[in-house]
Amino acid sequence: MPSSAPPPPTAAVAATATVTEDEAGLRLDRWLRRRQPGLPQSAIQKLCRTGQLRIDGHRAEAATRLAPGQAVRLPPLAAAPQPAAAEPRRPPDPKLAEALQRAVLYRDDQVLVLNKPPGLPVQGGPGITVHLDAAMDALRFGADRPRLVHRLDRDTSGVLVLARTPGVAAKLAAAFRSRSVEKTYWAVVARLPVPSEGRIDLPLRRFSGLRGGRTAPAERSDPEAARAITEFRTLDHAGKLAWLELQPLTGRTHQLRVHCVAIGAPILGDVTYAEPDQNGAFAATVSGLSEAMHLHARRLVLPHPAGGRLVVEADLPPHMQQSFRTLGFVEPPPAAPRRGPGEKT
Questions:
Q1: φ, ψ dihedrals at 188, nearest 5°
Q2: pLDDT (tens digit per residue) in 242-297
Q3: The whole model's pTM is what?
Q4: Could you tell me which CATH number the domain at 15-74 has?
Q5: Cβ distance 134 to 146 under 8 Å?
Q6: Same CATH fold, 182-340 and 15-74?
Q7: 297 neighbors 181 (Cβ within 8 angstroms)
């Protein structure tokens, strides 16, 4: 009599996938989650720890950055729980979408650069429903939804870089982490610094709390302090007010705002960090000036993912243009975006 027992299950077989050009620079764990949505980080860590997840035959850590052409061994994976279906994204407000499209300074197949308007948060948070990240569909231009690779404060205007593919996002994020991006800001401050130019080397510490926390100067011996360096140069002045060029050599949260307060020259409109009576820092005390923040990301020089260096400059927002006219400051028009050879520009 033939056996009625079911046949043994077929053994699962490991597969191998090759990293594409567009996936270069992605972390191994993020790369794997694209292929296995819902796979928890703890499971990925275990696969790495036990040697089941390998790159070119070698053990790898979850944080390993991938390179094009590498072969990743994918072990047999149990069906991972699928994440709950996300609510469909609401289309951005038509006026905001139009404003963002007008704010585009540069665009190619890999990179998109905006002149971010002041007052627009880059990402959401408690009580924030309108922000750039939620309006990215307005910036597709027939391609994938762009991705953030760095941040500007809500009230800071100027050059903001977006990546148009996941692989480009990883490369650009790595460039910002490695400090290979040159950043230049303009600010109007409530005091002429003495000396008129120099370097601020003041450690900073981030404290959690309401509204996302606060940054403050810290002692060098503080184990939670992070080194923060800003170079500054006075470009012009009118009475006690000055136009500064600021170049952060590190990327700490609110670094420029705290460093300007530290040299007694708070940024006009910075109600978070300037003391109410610090050099008459509030623009309302100066006739004809806006109370908005006077901090603008003027220029970025960054390595382009396809080679060379991309240079982009952004015009001042309307409230700073008005302040410049009132104070008699004459700013040069922004240069046209350009992508040049690898040397510094």
A1: -105, 125
A2: 999 999 999 999 999 999 999 999 999 998 888 766 666 665 567 779 989 999 99
A3: 0.77
A4: 3.10.290.10
A5: no
A6: no
A7: no
Which amino acid is it at 111?
A: V
Question: DSSP string covering 249-285, please?
Answer: SS--TTHHHHHHHHTT-PBTT-TTTS-TTSTT-SGGG
Structure tokens belonging to residue 330: 């004459």
Cα-Cα-Cα-Cα dihedral sign, residues 234, 184, 279, 284: positive
**CATH class for the domain made up of 182-340:** alpha beta
Cβ proximity of 105 and 314 under 8 Å? yes
Pairwise CA distance, residues 299 & 337, whole Å: 10
- Assign 237 to helix, strand or coil: strand
The third-level CATH classification (topology) of the domain covering 94-177 is Pseudouridine synthase (3.30.2350)
Helix (H) or strand (E) holding 32: helix 28-35
Domain boundaries, the chain: 15-74, 94-177, 182-340
Q: Which residues contact 333 (CB under 8 A, 6 or more apart)?
A: 315
69: left (phi over 0), alpha (psi -120 to 50) or beta: left
Query: Around 270, how many Cα atoms within 13 Å sit in the side-chain half-sphere?
Result: 27
* Alpha-carbon span 286 to 241, nearest angstrom: 10
- Could you please report the per-residue DSSP string of 179-221? T-SEEEEEEEESS--SSSEEEEE--EEEE--GGG-EEEE--TT
Would the CA dihedral through 97, 114, 102, 156 be positive or negative?
positive
First to last CA, the chain: 85
- Return the active site residues: 153
Q: Which tens digits make up the pLDDT trace of 121-155?
A: 998 777 788 899 999 999 999 998 999 999 999 99
Q: What is the pLDDT of residue 80?
A: 46
Between CA 52 and CA 55 the distance in angstroms is 10
What's the CA gap between 159 and 182, in Å, rounded?
12
